Amino acid sequence: MRKNVKVFENHVECGQAAAKLGAKLIRAAIKEKGSASIVVATGASQFDMLEALIAAPRIDWSRITGFHLDEYVGLPITHGASFRRYLWERFVSRLPLPMEAFNFIDGEGDVTAECRRLNRLIRAKPVDVAFVGIGENGHLAFNDPPANFRTTRPYIVVELDEACRRQQLGEGWFKSLAQVPKEAVSMSIRQILASKTIICTVPDERKAQAVKDCLDGEVSPLHPASILQWHNDTHIFLDQPAASLLSKD
């Protein structure tokens, strides 16, 4: 997979390059079969990529179905850290895309029923392009270490470890660690791997150790995003700070 790792001078160039490839693949899927299905990640690491994807030319958004990667359990959509709110404000509301075409995760009600609903929907819409990131603890979506590499359920309820919760605090989404939820609904590892193409955007020096662990090390549930090494069409986009600890091989 290291052949598909690209390093850019800064986070803006990194995000723009990831979006450029993603847009190309979306257009190709629409041309081939008349529609495309995508997965969209959230968090500070995706700001530049999403901005560039919105601006990408010649994408017929009316032919796209979107899926949400993860969401906190019990957090209202009005909260500043809500990923539904993030995606609505930063992505969906800025596109000529009917709201019903994007399948948000509702973590406020019966999350078991919500997982069943999402599982039914995504099984009917195989994913063409999944836009993801890597967490400071190496997580992929909200699959914190040790991640469940075995479940075939597309969406699952997961517990968030302290490192993950501290990342959310450090990025300014919450005022205290106690406010960060301890559970989330997350797309599972195997569902992410079922995507035809995965585009992983990882800027920032905070992610450097996780990037090294996941790309230089062996595949392990202790470094969840290391599983991307087993995917046949994953493209990793890093800025120089995020790539700073990678081996030169």
What gap, in angstroms, lies between the N and C termini? Answer: 12 Å
Strand order of the largest sheet: 1-10-9-6-2-3-5
Q: Give the topology string: H per helix, E per strand.
A: EHEHEEHEHEEHEHEHEH
Tell me how many strands there are.
10
Helix content class = 25-40%
Set out the fold topology.
Elements: E1 5-8, H1 11-33, E2 36-40, H2 47-55, E3 64-68, E4 70-72, H3 83-90, E5 102-103, H4 111-123, E6 129-132, E7 155-159, H5 162-170, E8 183-187, H6 189-193, E9 197-202, H7 208-216, E10 234-239, H8 240-243
Parallel strand pairs: 1-10, 2-3, 2-6, 3-5, 6-9, 9-10
Antiparallel strand pairs: 4-8, 7-8
Helix pairs in contact: 1-2
Question: How would you sum up this structure, described in words?
Answer:
The chain has helices at about 10-35, 45-55, 85-90, 110-125, 160-170, 190-195, 210-215, 240-245; strands spanning about 5-10, 35-40, 65-70, 70, 100-105, 130, 155-160, 185, 195-200, 235-240. By secondary structure, it is α/β, with parallel strands linked by helices. The protein has a domain at about 1-120 and about 195-210: Rossmann fold (3-Layer(aba) Sandwich), CATH 3.40.50.1360. Helix 1 packs across helix 2 (about 45-55). The mean pLDDT is about 95.
Short description:
It is built from 8 helices and 10 strands. It is of the alpha/beta class. The chain has a domain at 2-122 and 197-209: Rossmann fold.
